Amino acid sequence: MAHRIGRRKNVKKGFQFTLMVVGASGLGRTTFINTLCDADVVPKRESDEPDMAHVEEGIKIKPYTVELDEDGVKISLTVVDTPGFGDMIDNEYCFQEILGYLERQYDDILSEESRIKRNPRFRDNRVHALLYFITPTGHSLREIDIELMKRLSPRINVIPVIGKADTFTPFELAEFKKRVMEDIEHHNIPIYNFPFDPEEDDEETVEENSELRSLLPFAMIGCEEEIMVNGRKVRGRQYPWGIVEVDNTQHCDFAKLRFALLSSHLQDLKEITHDYLYENYRTEKLSRSAENLSD
Amino acid sequence: MAPAQTGAGIGIANLPNQRHKIVAKRGGNFTLMVCGESGLGKTTFINTLFTTTIKTPKSYKRRFNKSAEKTVEIEIIRAELEEKQFNIKLSVVDTPGFGDYTNNRDSWLPIIDFIDDQHESYMRQEHQPRRQDLSDMRVHCCLYFIRPTGHTLKPLDIEVMKRLGTRVNLIPVIAKADTMTPTDLHKFKKRILEVIAAQNIQCYTFPLESDDEASTKRNMSIMAAMPFSIIGSTDDVMTNDGRTVKGRQYSWGVAEVENEDHCDFKKLRQLLIRTHMLDLISSTEETHYEVYRHAQMETRKIGEPKVKTVTNPKWKEEEESLRKRFTEQVRLEENRFRSWEQQLIAERDRLNKDLEAEHSHIKALEAELEAMTAGLSSKRK
């Protein structure tokens, strides 16, 4: 378990992790955040005025911080919500807003690094992973999905998930996942796909990562309410024809994704952000300003 | 003059039967439009409604060969249905590409133009010397598929529905309703109705009062269910209690199409086919067509071709959007420079402060050193 070596030292201090959640409204983004943190982190959307429903509000970027305890490990989790994405008639502007936010966090680190005396309590606000909620159309990726993932993957680990996956029957879900991965490959979108090296890593890591890779994109169902099923209290959605359980791995991939994000792959996501994505940004930015100076 | 009753009956009451025979022989003609983003179950719904494959499901093999053009197309599928020797010519108009792109501005123009063009074409044909075989593709009913977000109508939905409602019988439908729990569905329906009322969107209504009480009650329950929640499926599945129904089989149960507790499919089918198809057709011909004709005749003489004014507003809009983009870019650049300047100033201040801190530290060390050397030299004396 190579990625857990640093854990023992940090267990007492705890980890810091920043996650951004992007997707059109009505895909269960807010519910997912609340289900992930097991608390009412993001307030429920206030019912909008009916006569203002035609007004297009732009995208907003809202970070929320919670303290979680995962098996005795403290995690300070910051979730960045992006309400308003994809809701307008013309959504070209959304991409620039999100990209701007991500790059501003990198800029802050860059300028902090250049100081003579660095602030030891400087807060690292870089976003380590982006969960992109795909609309469950049942066909394939839409133009806005492809555009977003393409534009943001050079700056952040993009993990595609399917929102409201209880729209699909098991067969439809498998077909949709297959087509989405085909689209991602066709358009050469570099998503975070739980990388492993079959020669270097041990068998357990290889197995763990290939399993997670085969589940991409993760099927998400979110629910904050608890209902009674056979005498147990579970988090689930009650339909007239049955009950969907959030924590049941047969029904959706929520539990597996949560474990990957907050336990097994937290360190890996942070390392890739720092060692690879941030370094690329730094190189690009510094060479750009060097070019500007030499002009 | 009060109507005089004929004695034993001379056969006037047989007129409806004669009419029935003529209509039965002629057959019917019905044009239905389905409008909404892709992936909302439009094709499946049509096939479920008419219990036959009117439209084949999308083929995915050619999706990578798509052209870069981001257009909304109008696709017409024609079918002839027969039931108990009564024929009906059905046309289904689909709108692939609507709402599917990043920028959907003006994506409703091809749809609106199509509806208006049908009225226009019928009007022109009426003015011809030979009016026998009119090809009538006027849209009798438009089903607008709403994405089951659970929140409210999107700005795009509102823009399109406003324009559709004044031209055609608009029936809003909540697609893929098996995504929502009954409480969520109820809240969603209520909110949609509030928005429709607040935004003045005209939806299809029909007279509720009828001769017999059963019909009146049925009409009222149909109207109360608007917007209709639907589930579409052409597959036969087995429920937990052994029945074979049309439905969707999930790991946690079977959602049935024809179960009124699961969705409003039956009510919608009742409305579209069994009870109000004729009303849809006649209200299109009488109300919507007349509105169009009236508006056109106010400005045009009989026989004059329609002036295409569509392109001009588009140009003006494009110009406007280009100008807006230009000023927006300039503003962004100015902001960027300003924030860059501020960053540089802030950094300069920070570095200066650090330098000062170092300076004072050095001074302190120097003072210490001096004190020590002073102390040493005084010791030596």
Task: Indicate the multimeric state.
Answer: heterodimer
Low-pLDDT sequence parts of chain A: 1-7
Overall mean confidence score, pLDDT of chain B: 86
Mean pLDDT of chain A: 87
Rg of chain B, nearest Å:
34 Å
Structural class of chain A: alpha/beta
Radius of gyration of chain A, rounded? Answer: 20 Å
Biggest sheet of chain A: strands side by side, in what order? 2-3-1-4-5-6
Supply database-style keywords.
heterodimer; A: 295 residues; alpha/beta; six-stranded mixed beta sheet; three-stranded antiparallel beta sheet; disordered N terminus; B: alpha/beta; 9 helices; 14% strand; elongated; Septin-type G domain-containing protein (chain B); GTP binding (chain B); G_SEPTIN_dom (chain B); GTP-binding (chain B); P-loop_NTPase (chain B)
Summarize the helices and strands and which ones pair or pack.
The complex is a heterodimer of chains A (295) and B (381).
Chain A: H1 7-11, E1 15-22, H2 29-37, E2 62-70, E3 73-81, H3 92-113, E4 129-134, H4 143-152, E5 158-162, H5 170-186, H6 203-215, E6 218-219, E7 226-229, E8 232-239, E9 242-245, H7 254-264, H8 266-294
Helix pairs in contact in A: 7-8
Chain B: H1 15-26, E1 28-35, H2 42-49, E2 75-83, E3 86-94, H3 109-126, E4 141-146, H4 155-165, E5 170-174, H5 182-198, H6 213-224, E6 228-229, E7 236-238, E8 244-250, E9 253-256, H7 265-275, H8 277-299, H9 311-380
Parallel strand pairs in B: 1-3, 1-4, 4-5, 5-6
Antiparallel strand pairs in B: 2-3, 7-8, 8-9
Helix pairs in contact in B: 7-8
Domain Septin-type G (chain A): 13-288
Pfam families (chain A): Septin
GO cellular component, one term (chain A): septin cytoskeleton
Task: Give a written overview of the molecule.
The complex is a heterodimer of chains A (295) and B (381). Chain A has 295 residues and is of the alpha/beta class. Chain A contains eight helices and nine strands. Chain A has helices spanning 7-11, 29-37, 92-113, 143-152, 170-186, 203-215, 254-264, 266-294, and strands spanning 15-22, 62-70, 73-81, 129-134, 158-162, 218-219, 226-229, 232-239, 242-245. Chain A has a six-stranded mixed beta sheet with strand order 2-3-1-4-5-6, sandwiched between helices. In chain A, strands 7-8-9 form a three-stranded antiparallel beta sheet, with no helix packed on it. In chain A, a hairpin with a 2-residue loop joins β2 and β3 (73-81). In chain A, α7 (254-264) packs across α8 (266-294). The longest helix of chain A has 29 residues, at 266-294. Mean pLDDT of chain A is 87; it is low at 1-7. Chain B is α/β, with parallel strands linked by helices. Helices cover 48% and strands 14% of the residues of chain B. Chain B has helices at 15-26, 42-49, 109-126, 155-165, 182-198, 213-224, 265-275, 277-299, 311-380; strands at residues 28-35, 75-83, 86-94, 141-146, 170-174, 228-229, 236-238, 244-250, 253-256. In chain B, strands 2-3-1-4-5-6 form a six-stranded mixed beta sheet, sandwiched between helices. Chain B has a three-stranded antiparallel beta sheet with strand order 7-8-9, with no helix packed on it. In chain B, β8 and β9 form a beta hairpin. In chain B, α7 crosses α8 (277-299). The longest helix of chain B has 70 residues, at 311-380. The model of chain B has no long low-confidence stretch (mean pLDDT 86). The interface between A and B is large, with 55 and 59 residues. Chain A: One of its GO terms (molecular function) is GTP binding. Chain A: It holds the Pfam family Septin.
